[in-house]
Amino acid sequence: MAYSSERSQENRRGFLDPRTKLALVLLLALFVMGGLGGEALRPAKTAMSFLPFALLLIERRWKSFARGVIMLATGYGLLFIMPRLPGVLNYFALFCGGILTRFAVTVVMGEYLIATTTVSEFISAMEKIRMPQAVTIPMSVMFRLFPTIASEWKSIRRAMRMRGIHLGGARASQVLEYQLVPMMSSTVRIGEELSASALTRGLGAPVRRTNICRIGFRAQDFILLAGCLFVILLWILESIGVKLW
Hints:
Elements: H1 2-12, H2 18-33, H3 42-58, H4 62-81, H5 87-116, H6 119-128, H7 133-162, H8 175-200, H9 219-239
């Protein structure tokens, strides 16, 4: 039985360690979305922007990959047509295009993190880096909150669509009442249930928990972490006035 459990955990193990994924999300949030480093680090930022899409392809997350590509293409498309638009439309295209091109990469990386990491793997990774439970428990609850809310939203929309309550339907005026209001109530209930589930699993216990998840750094993790350190080193050199290119 132990061998079967170990084999099952190894087969379910993701391409990257959860700690590597968290480091990549933080790096993309700072440098790509936050613009840290300015124009001097543009080549490094461009290379980092391709990374989430490559990881989604490796994990065969085709729908997430397609959504990310559409978001990014829409952003660059708006920036491309922006000079040709008059007045207010020019500023609107600039605003939306700038947000999409900056946020899309980090959003895709965050979606990859959530889609390919189980709660048990996440908690195990947090415990290995000695993260306090005051941080681990809320994050573990939030980690499952968004996928559960997305599933609930799809179920509510399907149920209401069968009754003709959807945009473009005969009862489109009732969308706010019969879709959003139940969604808000479900969100509160889901949050309470996930919090109770986390406590039931012993996350608030004063003793150290055991975990059967197989996590650990492998060759690809060391390569990507070395890349993260390289980008940080470039930023430090740029900050002290060293000419990079």
